[in-house]
Amino acid sequence: MWHVGRMGSVVVAVCLAGCCCMFPNGIFDLTRTRPDKKEIIGIWHANAKTLKWLKEQGYDTSSVTTFEFRDDDTFTMTGMPDCWREAFENDWQKTFESGSGTWSLEEDEGYWEIELRFERPPWFPDGVDHTSLRLFHQEPPYIARTYVDPNQFNFLDFERQ
After folding, report:
1. Model confidence pTM above 0.85
2. Domain boundaries, the chain
3. What CATH topology corresponds to 31-160?
4. In which band, very low, low, confident or very high, does the pLDDT at 68 lie, cut at 50, 70 and 90?
5. Fewest CB within a 10 Å sphere: which of 17, 42, 74, 99?
6. What would you measure as the largest C-alpha separation in the chain, in angstroms?
């Protein structure tokens, strides 16, 4: 059995606090219970923080990036900046992509996400592309996130309108 002691407890508390601050919304805020489908259906827009970050990266933010999730499990993505698929900043062309396909709520390691399945998207016209948006918060309104570079804590957040 470990005996941490008073100073050790302070160190552990500081480390945990630092971890939560390093991860925007905190890793502990990942959605842990299955959301109701009706809380996902609708139009989701890039939030103000995401638009600010995109502008800082040189993207034209005059057109709003959106996802429309429909009740029939289909979706449309409009105006997504190319950084969502490109791992390195020097690969970004500062263009925008659109696509459509089907969506579902899926559990991944105890957390919920919106799984996206694109049918023959422009960036992969000969096949199917899968990706997901991680959900944050334990109750609505949720945030749906895709990571641009998790090591640098760069991500795109979307909120339902």
Report:
1. no
2. 1-27, 31-160
3. Lipocalin (2.40.128)
4. very high
5. 17
6. 60
